[in-house]
Design goal:
Structural class: alpha+beta
Domain VOC: 10-125, 169-282
CATH superfamily: 2,3-Dihydroxybiphenyl 1,2-Dioxygenase, domain 1
Order of helices and strands: EHEEEEHEEEEEHEHEEEEHEEE
Pfam families: Glyoxalase
Radius of gyration: 18 Å
Oligomer: single chain
Helix content: 10-25%
Protein name: VOC family protein
CATH architecture: Roll
Number of strands: 18
Largest sheet: 8 strands, mixed
Number of domains: 1
Distance between the termini: 20 Å
CATH class: Alpha Beta
C-alpha cells in the first residue's frame, strides 16, 4: 500500500515564508539534501526525484517567530529505506547538526530545526504489517532510537550520502492548533480524515486509508493561541493531494459547514480554524 499517492489523500508540499532565502536555500540543499527544482530570487522550489516538497518564499519585512502561535510544529520528510535514514544520520552528525530522535513503533525519526526555527522530521516507516492497531487506533510511542543499528545499516553499502533519494516524499505535517476539538471537526467532518491516535487531550493524529498519520495536531503552544501573523516567518501553506471527485465532495462539505473555500484555478484554498492555510490539489 502506498500511502502517498492517490487514491489516498496525502500532503504534497509545504510552503514557508522566509526572511533570508539564500541562507535557507543553502541549508535545505547542502544539509538536508533536497534538489533545487526552480528559483527566481523571491521563491525557491526544492524537492526530490523532480517532485516539489518544499517552497521557500521570501517575505519583505518578515520578522522572526516571537510568540506562541498556531502554525508549523514540524513537516516530516519520509525516506524510502532504513539505510537512507542511517546515511543521513551520519551526514547530519558530520555537519554538527543538533538532533533529536525517537522510535515511534510505526517509524524511526530524526528531529532538527532549520536556520529560521521551522521544525523538521526526517523518518522512515516500518512496514504496515508491523503496526499494531486496536479499535481503529494505531499504537505509537516515543522510545529511544537504535542509532547504532541505523549506522550499521548505512554502512552495509559503501556509497556515501548523496542527498535525498528520488523516492523521498512529504510524509506528514504536524501543526500547532488553538483548539483540538474545532481542529478535529474541520479535518474529520470537512476534509474526510480519520482519527488514528490520541495523546491525552493534547494531541491528535489523523490519516486517510489507515496510514499512521498524514496530519498531526497539538495544543502544546497553548489553547486559544492566535494564528501566525501575516508578517512573521513560518508556515505559509501546505497542500493536500486528492482525487478530483473527493475534492469536490470536500469543498461541498466545507461550504455546508459555513467555511469559505477560495478557487485559485490550480487549487482551492481553505483555512483551518487555527488559521493554517490548506491548498486542496488534484
Amino acid at each position: 500500500m502506498n500511502f502517498h499517492q492517490k487514491p489516498v489523500t496525502y500532503v504534497g508540499e509545504v510552503g514557508l515564508k522566509v526572511m533570508d532565502i539564500e541562507k535557507m536555500k543553502r541549508f535545505y540543499k547542502e544539509v538536508i539534501g533536497l534538489d533545487v527544482i526552480s528559483e527566481d530570487g523571491q521563491k525557491v522550489e526544492l524537492g526530490a526525484g523532480g517532485n516539489i516538497l518544499l517552497k521557500l518564499e521570501k517575505m519583505e519585512g518578515a520578522t522572526p517567530k516571537q510568540g506562541r502561535y498556531a502554525g508549523l510544529y514540524h513537516f516530516a520528510i519520509l525516506l524510502p529505506t532504513r539505510e537512507d535514514l542511517g546515511k543521513i544520520l551520519i551526514h547530519l552528525h558530520q555537519q554538527g547538526i543538533q538532533l533529536g530522535s525517537s522510535d515511534h513503533l510505526v517509524s524511526e525519526a530524526l528531529y532538527l530545526s532549520d536556520p529560521e526555527g521551522n521544525g523538521i522530521e526526517i523518518y522512515r516507516d516500518r512496514g504496515p504489517e508491523q503496526w499494531n492497531w486496536s479499535n481503529d487506533e494505531v499504537s505509537m510511542t516515543v522510545d529511544p532510537i537504535d542509532s547504532q543499528g541505523l549506522v550499521e545499516e548505512a554502512q552495509k553499502t559503501p556509497e556515501p550520502w548523496k542527498g535525498m533519494p528520488d523516492a523521498t516524499v512529504m510524509g506528514h505535517i504536524h501543526l500547532h492548533v488553538s483548539n483540538l476539538i474545532e481542529a478535529k471537526n474541520f479535518y474529520v467532518e470537512g476534509l474526510g480524515f480519520e482519527v488514528v491516535s490520541r495523546l491525552g487531550g493534547q494531541a491528535l493524529f489523523l490519516a486517510d486509508q489507515k496510514y499512521h498519520h498524514h496530519i498531526g495536531m497539538n495544543v502544546w503552544n497553548g489553547v486559544g493561541i492566535p494564528a501566525l501573523p501575516e508578517k512573521e516567518a513560518g508556515l505559509h501553506y501546505y497542500t493536500l493531494i486528492m482525487e478530483e471527485e473527493k475534492r469536490s465532495q470536500v469543498v461541498d462539505n466545507l461550504r455546508t459547514m459555513g467555511i469559505e473555500v477560495v478557487d485559485h484555478k490550480d487549487y482551492w484554498e481553505v483555512k483551518d480554524p487555527s488559521g493554517n492555510a490548506v491548498r486542496l490539489c488534484v
